[in-house]
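I wish you would study the pair of lines that follows with an eye to the fold:

===
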Amino acid sequence: MVPRGGSRTDDRPRRAEATTRLCAASRTERPVHELIRFVVSPDGAIVADLAHRLPGRGVWVAAERKSIAQAVKAKAFQRSLRRQVAVPADLDAIVERQLERRALDALSLANKAGLVIAGFEKVDSALAKGEAVALLHAAEAAEDGRGKLDRKFRAIRQAAGRDAPVVGLFTVEQMSLAIGRASVVHAALKSGGAADRFLFEARRLDTYRAGLPAAVPAEPA
């Protein structure tokens, strides 16, 4: 354990009990699942280790876009690593694109696992059967259709004492490519490990954009 106020970089395997790290931007201790780990690539550039698998010393920053931008501006990566490294000026935007890609890849895997239902009527039917554990709407979705499904979903989930996650982070084009069918505006997820993985990645992306680190969920097993 590194003393408070010291560098929270690491060059050894991360142990399960190491549940907090020091954010290099704010210099505050945070749970690991509220942070993003960065390492130096072989060509000397800072890259995000979103899966926490890359070797080398790590620098941890709160999983929100403004914190990444702050870390770049304050040269927090160089300070934590105590050496010069190449840090892209648009690192915050690069990380957002990577998080978005991970979420869409997870949606594709959930679809391949048979856990995605697409199309307004099919989603509405899945809600009535109690099969849906989450709703997805394209950013361009009409308010009336989205509102109808949301109200029904939340009423059913509330009656069952369960959360009612609704994801509206992606465009029609992005959802369609991930699910493998044209013009996907509304979709639903059925229960399963791949659905849990997508919801984790989607919440992480949403939190990163919104700047609400306390809302970052713990990673599913």
